[in-house]
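Input.
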Amino acid sequence: MKQSTVRILCVDDEPNNLSLLEAILSPRGYEVVLATNGPEALEKIAAEGIDICLLDVMLPDMDGFEVCRRIKADDRHRNIPVVMITSFTDRENRIRGIEAGAEDLIAKPFDSAEVLARIKMLLHVKALNDRLGELLLQQQAILDNIPNITWLRDREGKYMAVNEPFSRMFGLTPKDLIGKSDYDIYPPELAKKYEQDFREVVESGTRTYFEESIVDREGKLQYVEKIKTPIFNDAGAIIGIIGITHDITSRKELEVTLRHDSTHDSLTGLYNRAFFDEELERFTHGRKFPLSVVMADVNGLKTVNDTLGHEAGDKLLRLAARIILSAFRAEDIVARIGGDEFAVLLPETDEQVAREAVMRIKSSPEIINGLVSIAFGIATAENRDQLAQALKLGDERMYRDKSAQKET
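Output.
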């Protein structure tokens, strides 16, 4: 900033003091703006592009401390350095000046060399603050143009900058979140988790990547991936973290759909043969014994297909699948393993419980009324070594039941 452009507001209700300040400043190329009270000073701060303010403490109606507080409370003017001029330089008044936001305090009667030195120093500070403000605005503009949720945190975990998508999650502006910690903006349990995640990145000094599900302000479930990257200074010390959150809900929903399609039978909605075999292998290496097996076969499917068509056959299979599924628990694996064949794995279930489930199916209205006929075979493995034999035995019993039903 060139000296000729510097505008200094001098505020004092004593004309002699204003004249003295003008005599000191004008010959040095400063443009001097005068005010005799607090309201007038605030008007000129707002309207005349002031660079620095020399402010008397003892003013009528509104003292200098209040004027300073109002200047610093306005985002447009808070970077204007305020020098308070007072006859009272005791500790209490100095503290009041600091609390009001003043950058400096000069005692009356003031010395011209001191006034000029203080002004030069504070103008340098203002130039640095203005430059910092420009950089922060540029930084905020960059963050706001990133469509993903983005934030910067210092080493202590305070949010130094966040973008609009981040602040929108809380119904706030980015400025409202600056200086806050996780405990200020999240529920306690979630804040504790995020704080632990943050500390792990700081302590390890390495980038971390993970996925999680969150519930937005409208109660909708979202899936996100988070990348947290440490920021280092020239000495190699971590000074903060930058985080980016991507919304991967669409991808996750697609993965769920693909996973469902790969593990379920498209006709009946039950698990398919491939998934049944996977679960069978998993149970083989687990501790879910005794494990019961129910094998089932729809009677007369070929006849229905041949006489009424495959659409009628498909309808029969869907009916059988529905009544079989309804008899078992959520943790049981109910699958269609062939054209007219079904199989159920019941972990931690003895043969008596499996028989009770089959009896529920046989007592269903659909079977009693002859809408569908199903043959069953039940067997139980007490340990992994008996599992293969239980599958074979269940199959044999199912075919014996099928033969017996044909004879009747």
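The longest strand covers residues 221-232.
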